[in-house]
Amino acid sequence: MSKNLRVKTSKFIDETYRVSFKFNGSKYFGYKGDTLASALLANDIHLVGRSFKYHRPRGIMTSGSEEPNAIVQLHNNSERTEPNVRATEVEIYEGLEASSQNCWPSVNFDIGGINNLLSPLLPAGFYYKTFMWPASFWEKYEYFIRKSAGLGKSPTKADPDIYEHEYIHCDVLIVGAGISGIMAAKTAAKNGLKTLLVDEKPNLGGSTVYQNSEHFKINNQNSGSWLEKEINEIKKIDNLDIRIRTSVAAFHGYNFLLARENLTDHLPIEQRKNKTRQKLLKIRAKKVITATGSLERPLIFDNNDRPGILLSSAIKRYADLFGVACGEKNIFLTNNDSAYETAISLIQKGIKVEAIVDNREEIESKLLYEIEKNNVKVYKGFTIVNTNGYKKINKVSLMKLSKDGQKVIGSKIDLSCDCLGVSGGWTPAVHLFTQSGGKLKFREEDQVFIPNKYSSEQISIGACNGDLTLEDIIENTPKYLKEFLNIKKTDYDNVEVFSDENKSKRNIWLLPSDKILGKTKSFVDYQNDATAKDIKLALREGFRSIEHVKRYTTTGMGTDQGKLGNMHALGIISETAGTKMGEHGTTTFRPPYTPLTFGTIVGRNVGEYFDIFRKTPMHEWHLKNKAEFENVGQWKRAWYYPKNNENMFEAVQRESKAARESVGILDASTLGKIDIQGTDASEFLNRVYTNAWSKLAVGKCRYGLMLNEDGMVYDDGVTTRLGENHYIMTTTTGGAANVLGKLEDYLQTEWPELDVYLTSVTDHFATISVCGPNSKKIISNVIPDLDLSDENFPHMSFKNTKIGKINCRVMRISFTGEHSYEINIQANYANSVWEKCMEVGKDFNITPYGTETMHLLRAEKGFIIVGQDTDATMTPIDLQMDWIVSKKKYDFIGKRSLYRSDTIKDDRKQLVGLLTDNPNEILEEGAQIVADVNKSPIEMLGHVTSSYYSPNLKKSIALGVVRGGKNMIGKKLIIPMENKTINVTVTDSVFLDKENKRLNA
Amino acid sequence: MFIINCPFCGEREQSEFKAGGEAHIERPKQPTELSDDEWAEYLFMRKNIKGIQFERWNHIHGCRKWFNMVRDTSNDEIKAIYKMGEKPPVK
Ligand SMILES: [Zn+2]
């Protein structure tokens, strides 16, 4: 039966509101206001998890977001399960279920704990050294490591919660609502600035708000009461937006910050329905005030990781804020005054303090005197060399420190205890400051890094700026605020402060032991099980940069980013290497400060909004007619229309035959369309296409190929001259936006003298392509007034006409080699025209076809698809399209590159046709092409780019790029496949109707 | 995430812009007169400086205008912004 360690009523806990929750399957009670950690401690539970590498029992160490050990899984196996949550941050609610991670089968009996016994075999770099060779074994190792490591379980069901993004623009953002943050918020807001104050905790006031000691006073009140009044005041200020449970994840350049606001995680699950769970705040602040406080440092000694060993400040917070005693026989190990504050707080509440072990030899402190008055033994100049107790600490061993602090001397003293508080002084929380690009400096006197150079309009104030005592905060903060906010006075200019704390400190990064280092387990990074020994080993093996040591030992690479132990790692490195602190770098703290859920990151961009798609005006029709769709750029394009359980191959064969035998209809609306106007429009086209445009008559269409400046094919399409100074250009579906961007770039930057205007009209017009020997009959029916005779409307020309009262443009152009028309009409009329074509086409078996059939039909004619038959390494010459490259034009984009020494080589890959010896064998697109399979290594000549079975030619056809292919017509080549080789013959790339008879049929 | 002062629209978020590489590389007026090496110099060679760099930017999700920027790539400080065709206001 567990004990109740709730000792004293705290005003921050609602003891009238009992909350039940489950931990590892057992039911417990806490109160509203508890965190999971405080509620567990109140139930005398310290052991909450196992460490990552050695599976050592671990307990709650801290009371905040820096917690390395007490990492739990919430609501295991449910849709809301979440791994790697810090028990110190979870607010309990009715029905909360939490379980330990990193342990199997249970936290009390863990098979991986055997690693602890094997630990001499698991030094730093163990994983790198052992698992790298042979590489083929990695799969097996990985399985073993993952199973025994288990960093929690990710959810397998869809997340039922709602997440949002919110943009906030403010004059001043204050990060952290401790005493200095509150002072800053009130000062900024009272001066009329739009102010935002955020804090990760559910309540404001940081650690001062529960400070009710006689030893710390502001304006003659204890500091907690004074701050509470300030908090009540700022809550009434209109232009101050306060967000609690809001953790800043990232501080980017130009004062752009990301924060996660938790809105429902503290509520019982049934109350969360239809509410936003978390918000990602995207904050742009003119000025940023960082007031993130400081983190207490642990101390590094043998077995410093047992359950029941906590930071001294955490013990104080559990006692003062939650009314919970972490133990009934408390001992402290300290090198500064902070532990005395905690001890006094415990004594006031009737919690027993056995002893204080202080590294300092001589101590001048009023706090010490009060402790001694209470008959608590203080061991001055002592340190702890070992601890005992497997699942919870039960004993500590002390020894006297030598004068230089490098050794222990004398005999060992054993003291029994059930809780050990450690205090190694304070580390300013400079994480966000360094994320923003700020540079640190090292302050020798108390061995801390503090902000030195800011990268934007920002300051750090309070403890995160190195003002670690109440006196310094009250004295310095108003000065900093006045200068930064450019104001004359603050409410705090004449505040009186009184503190009994003494600043003295005896900093020893690695406390000495009576054992040799190799026999100790002095943890520096608790979550990743990196010890002082590991760091020294890394240095012995030649690593110097902190970034290298970090990766080799995994120090600071857990989900907590080593918030507790990084300073000690740096300290041990500099001591061992004999260098100055920071000389080997300080580790970079990367966003996010605490882990973010994927839900917060994606916000509302889930489901159909994850990657929005574009639909043509005929989309509903395609859906109704059972089209399968293909993604092209952001478009959904009809791919093929299966009938009566046809598979794709069968559908495409049917569609392809119908288009050549009677008539097919294609939705070509996705092609990019750019309206080009201006007196220099023709000259402009001359410069951007490889062929000549000046002589194109009004009413005529021309195919154009566009290159990059490096001579490689970039895009293609048909452009029509609508008027003297007016063209409409079509581009590939995927290339539309880039082509427009490229053309605008040249117009604005290289040729600003040209009178040309470009407008994208892709979405404004829909395009219906009707092709096949009966296409003329369809069009004459749909547009009876249009004279379709070859004389009036020949191939490669266009007409302005009307369908009913609606203007449209009809082009007689063809991508299939068939007689065909493209109707371009305002998008909102397109579906009715499409349906009309279908209606009048009934008698001709009009067959809708999708992109796959389009690809097959054009391949029969040897027409290329940019991006399929080309890959940014193909020139028009490589494509055997010399005919489209003007010899007369002085210049066009890419022209000069066509005769670089590299592009004029004969043995470049060139586009050719490929026919399989067996006409029923269909090649795989992407398959390699070789000449000789017996050569070793086999020389790759190229690859297959397009391949189909042609129902019209009744044989397999393919296009491919082959090194020197131009001169290989008739030659036999080989396609080696996994289980066979396929023999092919190189041919011309036009397979059907070389004479273009069908165009005019 | 910069705030970029588009010379045509004013201050906007970086997400509205596209970077367009090094500035002041003019397309040769007579490419045919150039040797392979000279053409390659124009086509391929870019500086990628740590420090003060002259770059092209495009307000692609705004006015779609191109302009020039002087930026210190070591700390992302934008030193100046000026229109196409104008001389850089700083060195
Ligand atoms: Zn603009």
Please render the helix and strand layout as text.
The complex is a heterodimer of chains A (1001) and B (91).
Chain A: E1 14-23, E2 26-32, H1 36-42, E3 47-50, E4 57-59, E5 71-74, E6 82-86, E7 96-100, H2 114-117, H3 126-131, H4 138-149, E8 162-175, H5 179-190, E9 195-198, E10 216-218, E11 221-222, H6 223-234, E12 240-243, E13 246-252, E14 256-262, E15 276-290, E16 294-296, E17 309-311, H7 312-322, E18 330-334, H8 338-348, E19 353-358, H9 366-373, E20 377-380, E21 382-388, E22 395-401, E23 408-416, E24 419-423, E25 426-428, H10 431-435, E26 439-443, E27 448-453, E28 458-460, H11 470-485, E29 497-499, E30 523-525, E31 530-531, H12 532-540, H13 546-553, H14 566-577, H15 598-602, H16 619-624, E32 628-632, E33 635-640, H17 648-661, E34 664-667, E35 672-677, H18 681-688, E36 701-707, E37 713-723, E38 726-731, H19 736-750, E39 757-760, E40 765-771, H20 775-782, E41 797-803, E42 806-812, E43 820-826, H21 827-841, E44 847-848, H22 851-860, E45 909-916, E46 928-930, E47 940-950, E48 955-963, E49 972-976, E50 981-987
Parallel strand pairs in A: 1-7, 8-9, 8-15, 9-12, 15-28, 17-24, 18-19, 18-24, 19-20, 34-44
Antiparallel strand pairs in A: 1-2, 3-4, 5-6, 5-7, 10-11, 10-29, 13-14, 14-15, 16-25, 21-22, 22-23, 26-27, 30-31, 32-33, 34-40, 35-38, 35-39, 36-37, 37-38, 40-43, 41-42, 42-43, 45-48, 45-50, 46-47, 47-48, 49-50
Helix pairs in contact in A: 5-6, 5-11, 7-8, 8-9, 12-13, 12-14, 17-22, 20-21
Chain B: E1 3-6, E2 10-13, E3 18-22, H1 36-44, E4 52-58, E5 66-72, E6 77-83
Antiparallel strand pairs in B: 1-2, 3-4, 4-5, 5-6
The complex binds zinc ion (ZN).
Pair with the biggest interface: A-B, 23 and 27 residues
Number of helical elements of chain A: 22
Percent of residues of chain B in helical segments?
under 10%
Helix coverage percent of chain A:
10-25%
Radius of gyration of chain A from CA coordinates: 38 Å
Low-pLDDT stretches of chain A are none
CATH class of chain B equals Alpha Beta
* Uncertain stretches of chain B: none
Oligomer description: heterodimer
| Rough outline of chain B | globular
Structure ligands: zinc ion
Shape of chain A: elongated
The overall average pLDDT of chain A, rounded, is 93
- Label the structural class of chain A: alpha+beta
Structural class of chain B: mainly beta
Side-by-side strand order of the widest sheet of chain B: 3-4-5-6
The largest pleated sheet of chain B is described as: 4 strands, antiparallel
CATH fold field value of the largest domain in chain A: FAD/NAD(P)-binding domain
Cα-based radius of gyration of chain B, to the nearest Å:
14 Å
